[in-house]
TrEMBL record:
Main location: endoplasmic reticulum
Lineage: Eukaryota, Viridiplantae, Streptophyta, Embryophyta, Tracheophyta
One BP annotation, GO: protein folding in endoplasmic reticulum
Stated family: Belongs to the EMC1 family.
Location of the protein in the cell: Endoplasmic reticulum membrane
Segments forming domain EMC1 first beta-propeller: 26-415
Protein name per UniProt: ER membrane protein complex subunit 1
Subunit record text: Component of the ER membrane protein complex (EMC).
SUPFAM superfamilies for the chain: Quinoprotein alcohol dehydrogenase-like (SSF50998)
Keywords, comma-separated and alphabetical: Endoplasmic reticulum, Glycoprotein, Membrane, Signal, Transmembrane, Transmembrane helix
InterPro entries membership: Beta-prop_EMC1_1st, EMC1, EMC1_C, PQQ_b-propeller_rpt, Quinoprotein_ADH-like_sf, WD40/YVTN_repeat-like_dom_sf
Every ER membrane protein complex subunit 1 C-terminal domain range: 768-985
Superkingdom to which the source organism belongs: Eukaryota
């Protein structure tokens, strides 16, 4: 009977082990949102059209600088539907027509699309022909028809088109580029069959009268104005326009009706006292009025007759003006939003009658971190007392979107996060005793209910409501949203820099914004008219003083072009406060973080200007002393992609030009590689992550050790023939080839070169340890390919002799110099790949022990995790038993795409631009952050979680199993004793 008891124990142990060791390649439905989060954005709004006429859902349709078209709920700001077009498909015009369609004009006026307003489905798409690029104009007449079909007028690619609203067919086309005519306006007076195309040819003003139904040119009229024209035309009445001369100091009234053109000049100085500078026409569509802007001043000028102008109002503070809105027959209203220090004032005026007072005037408290108002769009509604009320959609300087109504902010969206330029991470504060203590108090009944729910979820017996309850319990108990560090290193801050010059700190737990800061140094001003953020760097990362000092980041930017002075900003990552800012006396062309920190744990940086000088920051005597010690070991390279040149540089002594300080160094060119421009063009480069950790320098191959070539000074460069740099299919296989190089950046020595014939760009690459993987298109096979190159150090082959190691004849820790010519061996292999690629990254862990995964951003805006073992160059069709024991996968011509390997599951990261991996303290796990128009964050375990229990581990089921095992042991023991007693009685 003892054998029976032992067998029972073995059976239960086998069941227990098999239950908890079932491999899982995907997540369950109730696990979504536990380890990942997904946020959707649209970007900075360029145009907005309200749709509130019918009862039901009130919405606003917008187009953005991220080439997105979206329909938003006016009550909450949620996205009804959204389409993100390609990066080259820039949206020029947007409008709603005939109450059911959204029309978008994009790509320089060459693509017109019709979208179904309720659900966003594309109804039709029309490609418009043309020969030159020109201004894009979309005009939707309400009364112009071709038979029973409504006509849409589109000017783009130098031609005027009449397009059917039913199927997008081009009814007629008129080419207007023969005279280099620059069309500024396309007008269709209400109830008329005549279309006016108006523009300039140098100093000549030209109007075309075109039959809207047939496209026939009825009349062409022109007249020369000696002073010439500049800027835009402002349409003020049916037969009158207003323009500015080339000096921007004279207003030109233009009458073009009855086939005659007349000009009238009015000097702006005669209307406005103390006028100076050059004026421009504010892009508004006010009737009988024009808005002029000069020196941040906006002046409204009423046009009472031909050449009769009067100033009605002058606004000295920064302001935004909306397009006019028809509120009743013959009455128009528009909004003016003025910026204050901590508030904004919105005023709605009657465009036709300013003397009757304002229709609305409100003051709203505004967060200073949003900056000034840049754009405003208004919409009207009828109040209960039958009077008109107004709501305003405003776009702020930080690219956020807000809806204002009745003096309050109804909702807001942080759409600046759709334009991330750079990112880094920051650790959270250390949890101090007595400060943050987790207190969880549950009654026994609630505890039992919770575990019963989890058990039902594990057995897939839970209802949808119970699945939601389980997910809420896990989110509450996981403590992933605490603002302190965790022992696994999962909780961090993602510090991101957006195109608006704003920094956001996102919590990795749920993606919420912990703090945000619109950098004062990057706000528009007279001294810095066009500030741009360049990069984000870790400035101070305290380890020894983690309890006393906060980490900080360095934001590097510029005030405009390449020659403009640079701007530095230092930001505390815990509080989000700007510690200091500097406007430099030199430009910034390149930034080199040095692997050296001072006593305060601030990292040293070299800032290179356009003149070849290097400036050291921080500017302290200690930093200067450290830099002088490291001076002989500081090398860098610069890639001039437009000239197809790579140059290597090093530092010399301090600068010797006039006014130079001791923190300035001259640079010296060490080497250069010039690729012949007629045969090779640089299309891609890749380098190793300087912070990458390599677990072992050797790799065992066929029971033999091969040493990895682990130089951090190696760069991957890909070049293609000039014809191969275009779009796929633009070159024949004989005209295109891809050449890849592995180059040592200290000496400029080419370590390896390989050529791929009939290959074409785009090329994407990722570099890690001693291998590089790159993706390109094969023109002969008409398929994408991925190739891998692994490089090994043959000069250390003698280190494999165990007797020399025992006798101390060689030293593995001896330094290796880049100037000693390395003996390298290269292994490579190519595979077919079914997806087009936007970006690539590689997983990273704390110790480098875990297997690597290649994270691929596909053309479908998803992230695919591909095991590095599939890209092993040693794969063969029939591996030997030793290779199979090693884990080598048999060779196939194509790389497998496993649906469960998509890190983003079924979600899309629209407009995917970058993937960043972050190691954690847990060696098996890596954090992945992917960004584009959307944001997505998750955890991955390339070798599965082997060093901890998962968060969804069922402790209740384990407890029940142990209890059942103990009960089984007790029962079998009792049965054994009874049987033994019965045998003794026989």
């Amino acid at each position: 009977m003892k054998v029976t008891m032992a067998m029972a124990i073995r059976v239960f142990l086998l069941l227990l082990v098999s239950f908890y060791s079932i491999p899982s390649f995907a997540i369950y439905e109730d696990q979504v949102g536990l380890m990942d989060w997904h946020q959707q954005y649209i970007g900075k709004v360029k145009q907005a059209v309200f749709h509130t006429q019918k009862a039901g859902r009130k919405r606003v349709v917008v187009s953005t600088e991220e080439n997105a078209i979206a329909s938003l709920d006016l009550r909450r700001g949620d996205i009804f539907w959204r389409h993100v077009l390609g990066s080259g498909d820039v949206i020029d015009e947007l409008d709603i027509g005939f109450g059911k369609y959204v029309f978008s004009l994009s790509t320089g006026g060459s693509i017109l699309r019709a979208w179904n307003l309720p659900d966003g489905q594309m109804v039709w798409e029309s490609y418009l022909q043309g020969s030159v690029s020109s201004k894009s104009i979309l005009c939707i007449p309400s009364s112009l028809k071709y038979g029973k079909d409504n006509i849409i007028l589109v000017f783009g690619m130098g031609s005027l088109h009449a397009v059917s609203s039913i199927d997008g067919e081009v009814i007629w086309r008129k080419d207007l580029v023969a005279e280099s005519l620059e069309i500024k306006q396309v007008l269709q007076p209400h109830g008329s069959d005549v279309v006016y195309a108006i523009g300039f040819v140098g100093s000549e003003f030209v109007t075309y009268e075109i039959n809207a139904r047939s496209g026939e040119v009825l009349k062409r009229t022109s007249k020369t104005f000696p002073g010439g024209f500049s800027g835009e035309l402002s349409y003020v009445s049916n037969d009158m326009l207003v323009a500015l001369d080339t000096t921007g100091s004279t207003i030109i009234s233009i009458r073009f009706g009855d086939g005659q053109i007349s000009f009238h000049q009015t000097a702006i100085s005669d209307l406005i006292e103390n006028f100076s500078g050059m004026a421009s026409i504010f892009p508004s569509k006010l009737t009988s009025m024009v808005a002029l802007k000069f020196n941040s001043v906006i002046v409204f000028v009423r046009v009472t007759g031909f050449g009769e102008l009067e100033v009605v109002e002058k606004i000295d503070s920064p302001a935004a003006i909306s397009d006019p809105l028809s509120v009743s027959e013959g009455q128009q209203a528009f909004a003016v939003v003025q910026n204050g220090e901590s508030k904004i004032s919105i005023t709605v005026k009657q465009a036709n009658d300013w003397s009757s007072g304002n229709l609305l005037k409100e003051t709203i408290v505004m967060d200073q971190q949003r900056g000034n108002v840049e754009k405003v769009f208004i919409n009207s509604y009828i109040r209960t007392d039958r009077s008109y009320g107004f709501r305003a959609l405003i776009v702020m300087e930080d690219h956020s979107l807000l809806l204002l109504q009745q003096g309050e902010i109804v909702w807001s969206r942080d759409d600046g996060l759709a334009s991330i330029l750079d990112m880094t991470t920051s650790e959270l504060p250390v949890e101090k005793e007595g400060v943050s203590v987790a207190k969880v108090e549950h009654s026994l009944l609630e505890w039992l209910k919770g575990h019963l729910l989890k058990l039902k979820g594990t057995l897939m017996l839970a209802t949808p409501e119970e699945v939601v309850a389980i997910q809420g319990m896990r989110l509450k108990s996981s403590q992933k949203n605490k603002m302190t560090r965790d022992h696994n290193g999962f909780r961090k801050l993602l510090i991101v820099l957006t195109r608006a010059g704003k920094i956001f700190a996102l919590h990795t737990g749920d993606g919420r914004v912990v703090w945000s800061l619109l950098l004062p140094a990057f706000k528009k001003s007279e001294a810095c008219p066009n500030p741009t953020g360049l990069n984000l760097y870790q400035w101070q990362v305290p380890h020894h003083h983690a309890l006393d000092e906060n980490p900080s980041v360095l934001v590097v930017g510029s005030c405009g072009g390449s020659e403009a002075p640079g701007v530095l900003s230092f930001v505390d990552t815990y509080t989000g406060k700007e510690l200091d800012s500097l406007t430099l006396g030199h430009s910034i062309d390149h930034i080199i973080p040095l692997p050296v920190t001072d006593s305060t744990e601030q990292r040293l940086h070299l800032l290179l200007d356009r003149k070849g000088h290097a400036f050291l920051y921080p500017r302290t005597p200690e930093a200067l002393k450290l830099c002088q010690v490291e001076l002989p070991n500081i090398y860098w390279y610069l890639i001039e992609a437009d000239k197809d040149i790579i140059r290597g540089h090093t530092l010399r002594k301090t600068c010797n030009f006039e006014g130079a300080d001791e923190y300035c160094f001259d640079t010296r060119e060490l080497w250069s590689i010039v690729f012949p421009s007629d045969s090779e063009k640089i299309v891609a480069t890749a380098t190793r992550n300087l912070n990458e950790v390599v677990h072992t320098q050797a790799k065992v191959v066929d029971h033999d050790a091969m040493y990895k070539y682990l130089s951090k000074n190696m760069i991957f460069v890909a070049t293609v023939s000039p014809k191969g740099a275009g779009e796929i299919g633009s070159a024949t296989p004989e005209e295109s080839s891809l050449v890849v190089y592995l180059i040592d950046t200290i000496t400029g020595r080419i370590l390896h070169r390989v050529s791929h014939h009939a290959a074409q760009a785009p090329v994407h690459a990722v570099f890690s340890e001693n291998w590089v993987i790159y993706h390109y298109f094969n023109l002969r096979a008409h398929r994408y390919e991925m190739s891998v190159i692994e490089i090994y150090d043959q000069s250390r082959a003698e280190n494999k002799d165990i007797w020399k190691l025992i006798l101390g004849k060689h030293d593995l820790s001896s330094p290796i110099s880049s100037y000693s010519r390395p003996e390298v061996m290269v292994k490579s292999q190519s595979y077919y790949f079914t997806h087009s690629v936007k970006t690539m990254a590689v997983s990273s862990t704390a110790k480098g022990i875990t297997s690597k995964q290649i994270l691929i951003g596909t053309i479908g805006d998803q992230v695919l995790a591909l095991d590095k073992r599939f890209l092993d160059p040693r794969r063969t069709p029939n591996p030997t038993p030793a290779e199979r024991e090693e884990g080598l996968i048999p060779l196939t011509d194509a790389l497998p795409i496993i649906p469960q390997s998509f890190v983003t599951h079924s979600l899309l990261v629209e407009g995917l631009r970058g993937i960043v991996t972050i190691p954690t303290k847990l060696e098996s796990t890596s954090l992945v952050f992917s960004y584009g128009v959307d944001l997505f964050f998750t955890r991955i375990a390339p070798s599965r979680i082997y060093d901890s229990l998962t968060e969804d581990f069922s402790y209740a089921l384990l407890l029940l199993t142990i209890v059942a095992l103990i009960a089984a042991i007790f029962v079998t023991w009792v049965m054994s004793e009874k049987k033994e007693l019965n045998e003794k009685w026989r």
